Amino acid sequence: MELSAFAPKDTVELAILDPRDGKPTDVTFTLAGPAHPVRQAATRALLDGMGAAEGEAETPPEKLRDLNTDYLAACVLGWQGLTRDSQALPHSLDEAKALLGDPRFVMIRSQVDRAMGDNRRFFD
Questions:
Q1: What is the distance between the alpha carbons of residues 41 and 103, in angstroms, rounded to a whole number?
Q2: pLDDT digits (tens, 9 = 90+) for 32-66
């Protein structure tokens, strides 16, 4: 088998599902693949943050959630189809952190989180 068959795609598009009926919406997120340099840096930052938390008696759940939010936001390289007040919502790292950290949008966060954890998604 060709070795390149084991190399993941650099990015994938994730169609966000409607929380009411589970059908795809016109909102898509571009996610960094396992070998993408942005994801590699985000993984290192996540692990460094968790390592810093090891000195504490118990890592507060809020800190773990913040670290995970930062990781997910960094791995979202862009999006299409999102609007706020009928205007296109431009992608930025800060917007991604705000969106994924907002409990009102847990359905988006959970879909991104699930997709990032499914490495098979990054292969043809």
A1: 25
A2: 999 999 999 999 999 888 876 556 666 678 888 99
Identify residue 40 by its one-letter amino acid code: Q
DSSP labels for 51-117?
HHHTTSSS--HHHHHHHHHHHHHHHEEEEES-EETTEE----HHHHHHHHH-GGGHHHHHHHHHHHH
Stated pTM of the model: 0.91
Q: Six-digit token pair at 66? A: 């913040």
Give Cα 75 to chain centroid, integer Å. 5
Taking only the tens place, the pLDDT of each residue in 1-17 is 999 999 999 999 999 99
Domains of the chain plus CATH, in order, are: 3-122 (3.30.2220)
CA-to-CA distance for 15 and 17, rounded, in angstroms?
Answer: 6
Q: Which of 69, 72, 67 is nearest to 53 (CA)?
A: 67
Separation between Cα atoms, residue 113 and residue 73, nearest integer Å? 10
